[in-house]
Amino acid sequence: MRVSLSRDARPQAMTLLVAATISVLLWFIPYAEILSYPFRIFVTFIHEGGHAIAALLTGNSVSSLSVATNSSGETYTTQGGLFSQVLISSAGYIGSMAFGALLLILIRKSVAARLVLVGSAVLIFGLTMIYGLFKPLFSGFAWSGIPFTLVAGTIISVGLFLVARFASAKVASFFVSFLAVQCVLNALLDLKTVFFLSSPFALPAQTDAVNMANATGIPAMFWAVMWIGLALGILWFAMRLYVAGRDKGFQPDLPFEETSTL
């Protein structure tokens, strides 16, 4: 089936293309990881938040959520039944991709970028304070992960709010596009890593796929391949919505918005 880019989607597509190009270029520039590091931590919060939200939706509880300086993370929840374990373990990588896809759709549906940034700030701050600070303190979990989680979550939340409050509308729109690209690319990179770590020839490593293998008896490679398929399906669906035309005018205040001549 042929898919064409509608005229009213071109400004957003150009914004997304520039954001993706910058993201890829940062991989090849020496020491540029310093610039992308906060976004990587942001994606880790989204990943761990996916586990936490899935646990709550399946009737389980969350004991703690922590993010480490190397951008890894851990979320401890009650186990529940097999169904809830499948959802909780799958919600990390799929949640990151789904969040990035959601940002793409919100951009396309003309939701104000400032509102999206404030909502993201509230989400990160809520995860930080509730599951990164208060729950570990009261549930007796190790406190070693609290300091960095608290500092990183607070800085990211404040940063998102400041961009929403003080940046121009065009900058805010581009920033949302960049966050969406970061979520999508990091989710794909993480899934690639899980795929290779799930190989029978790989050194033993503790991953969500290994957790699923231990819980179900189904090899970790199966779960890695299934998550990759689901992530690509989510991305395909989001991009279909992104390029399709719509009745109302496209989102204003985009950096590459086309203007008509009279």
Explain this structure:
The chain starts with 9 loop residues before the first helix and ends in a 19-residue tail after the last helix. The longest helix is centred in the C-terminal third of the chain and has 29 residues, at 169-197. It has helices spanning 10-28, 33-57, 82-108, 113-139, 146-166, 169-197, 208-216, 220-243, and strands at 62-67, 73-77. It has one domain (13-183, 225-243). The chain is built from eight helices and two strands, in the order H-H-E-E-H-H-H-H-H-H. A hairpin with a 5-residue loop joins strand 1 (62-67) and strand 2. Strands 1-2 form a two-stranded antiparallel ribbon.
SSE map:
Layout: H1 10-28, H2 33-57, E1 62-67, E2 73-77, H3 82-108, H4 113-139, H5 146-166, H6 169-197, H7 208-216, H8 220-243
Antiparallel strand pairs: 1-2
Number of strands: 2
Largest sheet: 2 strands, antiparallel
- Backbone CA Rg: 19 Å
Number of helices: 8
N-to-C CA distance: 36 Å
For this structure, the quaternary state is: single chain
Which structural category do the helix and sheet elements fall into?
A: mainly alpha
* Tertiary shape: globular
- The helicity comes to 55-70%
In what order do the strands lie side by side in the largest sheet? 1-2
Topology order in helix (H) and strand (E) letters: HHEEHHHHHH
Mean pLDDT: 83
Number of domains: 1
Which stretches of 5+ consecutive residues score pLDDT under 50?
258-262
